[in-house]
């Protein structure tokens, strides 16, 4: 019987039969074939390994950090107390970070990455609130537009049309800007807390540890190890830390969350609220493609070429993120969903597929939400900043640099970085993809093989949609937004 017809259980071998751990993990990746939108079971379709615990820990830390930032931004605009933020983060950890992740990304479709947090939308929250936006209306429309894109297979098509140079430039920009931003915020916090040397010492130690982990091929340990060391070093140098969030459960009733005097204190949205958030919902979904693209690249770079059956499916991930967004918002959550980067990046580096780590992530998120105290630790500045630096931004920067191997790709990458710096990564991606596919920059041989629909029509439509959405919400330099 050929390998393609044999089941995962039949092809699985003991790790002792391989020369090293890497060979064993790569063999596991090549023999798995998940059942899309059908029941996938542990030990029948996938297994648990020690390496699955690392991305699960990284994802849990990242979840607490990102959801807190998102909900806190909303809370400031609507005048809500810090207690609301903790309550809503708990809710997100239990429902979206726990139950939803296990059900969709582990059991029903392991080719869909976990639905995380749409970090680039955080700076737009004050604009959304000022425009009269409503979190529930925003969540519902993002879910609707996302499903529309996934059903039409638009996400995977856009990924295919994004050339190597554009991908590399996008990753380099996101990595470099994020890295500089996190270091700046860490330094600012250290100075304000009266422990200005903490940031320098912690980051210095992190550089040494990260370099050593890269040397021995263990970068997948970076988030939990570097975060733990950062917390220990910062505390030993006098940085203040205290546990304040007690164990408990959040409100589970959507009528409480969307009451006029309870929860969000906004009531249910009306037609005006939906109209106000249309451009923001379009922009959020338009930003998904480059985000998802960056995450899948890590799998392609770290998995063996034969492991195509376990790669993240962009359209399926959009479907899961859309469903999670609409349901989570209706139930009361304040998170804006996207592909879960703090899970996918370390999981790909560790050469592990999605489902086993997804189950562990869901369990850890539920425990963190119920216990409360782990939320305090993950949100502490030294832990938070180092986790984002070594888990997201450094790997993004490295991956982008590794992709640029040809001179023509470097031109596309440089143009993408330039355009992204002018406006934002969405504009940079859309403009450079159009220029690259037309053959005006980058690999002209690749452009000559594309049809006119792929060269001009699809990239032009995407560019126009992005520019119009950005213009409406005031994100184009020198142009005042309508909303």
Describe this entry's structure for a reader.
- This protein has 483 residues and is mostly helical.
- The protein has 22 helices and no strands.
- It has one domain (46-281, 299-404).
- InterPro entries: DUF3360.
Quick recap of the structure?
InterPro entries: DUF3360. The protein is built from 22 helices and no strands.
Characteristic key phrases:
483 residues; mainly alpha; 22 helices; 0% strand
Topology, pairings included?
Blueprint: H1 8-11, H2 21-31, H3 53-78, H4 82-108, H5 125-130, H6 135-151, H7 154-160, H8 164-192, H9 196-215, H10 222-236, H11 254-257, H12 271-286, H13 288-302, H14 314-331, H15 341-349, H16 354-371, H17 373-379, H18 381-403, H19 407-422, H20 425-437, H21 444-448, H22 452-472
Helix pairs in contact: 3-4, 3-15, 3-16, 3-18, 4-16, 6-12, 6-14, 7-13, 8-9, 8-18, 8-19, 8-20, 9-10, 10-18, 12-22, 13-15, 15-18, 19-20, 20-22
Low-confidence stretches: none
Number of strands: 0
Mean pLDDT metric: 90
Mind describing the biggest β-sheet? none
Task: List the secondary-structure elements in sequence, H or E.
Answer: HHHHHHHHHHHHHHHHHHHHHH
What overall geometry do the principal axes of the alpha carbons give? globular
User: What's the alpha carbon Rg, rounded to whole Å?
Assistant: 22 Å
Question: β content, as a range?
Answer: under 5%
Helix content: 55-70%
Amino- and carboxy-terminal Cα gap: 62 Å
How many distinct domains?
1
């Amino acid at each position: 019987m050929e390998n393609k017809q044999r089941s995962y259980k039949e092809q699985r071998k003991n790790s002792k039969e391989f020369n090293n751990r890497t060979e064993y993990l790569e063999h596991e990746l090549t023999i798995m074939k998940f059942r899309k939108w059908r029941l996938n079971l542990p030990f029948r379709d996938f297994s648990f390994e020690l390496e699955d615990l690392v991305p699960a820990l990284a994802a849990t830390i990242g979840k607490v950090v990102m959801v807190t930032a998102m909900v806190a931004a909303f809370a400031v605009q609507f005048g809500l107390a810090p207690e609301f933020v903790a309550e809503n983060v708990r809710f997100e950890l239990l429902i979206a970070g726990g139950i939803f992740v296990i059900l969709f990304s582990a059991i029903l479709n392991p080719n869909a990455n976990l639905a995380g947090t749409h970090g680039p939308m955080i700076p737009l929250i004050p604009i959304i609130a000022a425009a009269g936006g409503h979190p529930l209306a925003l969540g519902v429309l993002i879910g609707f537009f996302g499903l529309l894109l996934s059903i039409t297979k638009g996400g995977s098509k856009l990924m295919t049309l994004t050339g190597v140079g554009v991908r590399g430039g996008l990753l380099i920009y996101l990595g470099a800007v994020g890295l500089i931003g996190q270091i700046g915020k860490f330094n600012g916090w250290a100075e304000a807390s009266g422990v200005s040397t903490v940031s320098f010492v912690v980051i210095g130690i992190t550089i040494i540890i990260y370099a050593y982990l890269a040397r021995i091929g263990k970068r997948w340990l970076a988030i939990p190890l570097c975060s733990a060391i950062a917390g220990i070093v910062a505390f030993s140098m006098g940085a203040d830390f205290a546990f304040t969030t007690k164990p408990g459960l959040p409100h589970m009733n959507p009528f409480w969350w969307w009451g006029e005097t309870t929860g969000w204190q906004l009531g249910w949205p009306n037609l005006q609220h939906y109209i106000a958030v249309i451009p923001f919902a379009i922009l959020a979904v338009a930003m998904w493609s480059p985000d998802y693209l960056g995450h899948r690249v890590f799998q392609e770079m770290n998995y063996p070429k034969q492991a195509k059956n376990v790669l993240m499916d962009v359209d399926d991930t959009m479907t899961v993120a859309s469903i999670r967004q609409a349901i989570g918002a209706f139930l009361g959550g304040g998170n804006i969903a996207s592909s879960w980067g703090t899970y996918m990046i370390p999981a790909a580096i560790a050469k592990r597929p999605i489902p086993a780590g997804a189950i562990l992530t869901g369990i850890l998120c539920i425990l963190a939400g119920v216990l409360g105290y782990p939320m305090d630790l993950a949100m502490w500045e030294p832990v938070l900043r180092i986790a984002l630096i070594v888990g997201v931004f450094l790997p993004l920067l490295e991956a982008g640099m590794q992709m640029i191997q040809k001179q023509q790709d470097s031109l596309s990458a440089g143009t993408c970085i330039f355009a992204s710096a002018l406006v934002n990564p969405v504009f940079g991606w859309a403009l450079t993809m159009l220029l690259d596919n037309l053959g005006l920059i980058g690999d002209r041989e690749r452009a000559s093989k594309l049809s006119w629909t792929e060269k001009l029509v699809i990239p032009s439509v995407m560019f126009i949609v992005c520019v119009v959405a950005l213009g409406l919400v005031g994100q184009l330099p020198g142009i005042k937004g309508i909303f």
